Amino acid sequence: MQVADQTYNHVSESIYEQEYEALAKRLNEFPKLKELVLMKQSNGASIDCFDHLLVKDTLEHVTLKLYGKPLLSVESLDLSKVAPLPRVSDLIISCLPANDDSLLYIMYKFGALKNIVFDLTGQIYKLEGNFIMHDIDEPSHFYSPPVVAKFLQYIMNIPFYRLDRFYICNSLQVLDHMPTTTLETLKIRYAEREEYELYADMSIDLRCDGTTTKDFLTQPKSPVEFRILNEEIHTCFIDLFGCHIKRLHLIETPVFEPQGKGHYLDQIFLFCNKLEVLVLSSHAIQQCNPMFRRSRSITQLSLRSMVIANQIFPELSVRLPLLSRLILWNCSYSDYNGKPKKNRQVMIDMPYTSLTSLVICYLFEYKEQRHDVLFKICTLNGEKFFNVIINGTNGNEALELDNILYKSLLAATLTVNYVIHAKSVDAIDFHADDKKCTIQL
Fold it and tell me: What is the pLDDT of residues 101-115, one digit of tens each?
């Protein structure tokens, strides 16, 4: 059942207020009611404005939507007057008022959830149909750090959850109140502020849909994603919390990072002494000074949609002595000065590294054609040569070659050639156009 006082969420008044109240009074006429959608103009009300309608213990699925500008409620919430709904397993909430009472109410009212979705469009709202973005993030100062930390933990203890763009201020204080296990698996996105984000330090995204994330293959839950907006936090986040991080996905580089210089890796290797998996994506890297500190904890490195200079590989080989799994996913390559190079010849020179797994993804321009991908693999056990045939719709296969046949195929104009130098390589998984071919060594 749906009970609403309006039909469009950009209208600033309750068009059907009388009808809303009349229908709300008739909810007791539905003794087996399991699903309820409540839509109401906020008028500065707190989230508990719905509470007199949320009394039926038969409810299992609840959707709460507050429209309009979510002003702060001046009245404090008395939880002793709130009755929990233990049968509700699914909750969808939009337009959350920016105060502690709203978070406390949700945690107390819905204590047995299996799925929760937060669509917090109320923190960025539309006014009178003009569709002009307005900044109302300043009230987020009224979220106190201990309550926000408790609320985030509440969500992450639910089997399935989604929280997008939850803006917070005093973010370092919030993180101080959270268990360190929360910070073990993180995705960090360094971003410049949008015009409607003037007051927030960062936004937090949480998501768990029961599937395994592609970033951290062994993790059943997606990482917590911090979208950092405050430049001061850009520089200190890893320093303060890096010691807790075991799996890190870094999207783009901090604002203080010179393009492609890789200085932020010095910070990660220094402070993240428990880091096991590092994923870097969507930026360029040309240098990684091998004379600086090494990381003796990282065993997996994944580079995704990166622009990589070939000289970075021997430098990483020095700085990551325990690296055993390397993933190069849809990367392009450059020379030392950052100028693009054709991907036909890729040199992966890691002389101090023993790889149990090397994963490479390459996207061909013409998918239906046959493509030959050559591999020259140099290890302490000698040289081996392979031709991976990507044959359009007919599948893939890997053929071992001798040196003479390898050199003859190398002259072909459509041939992609990978030269791999390492102490040892156990297996190479090559992905192209949704196809996979494995070379066992």
Answer: 888 889 999 999 999
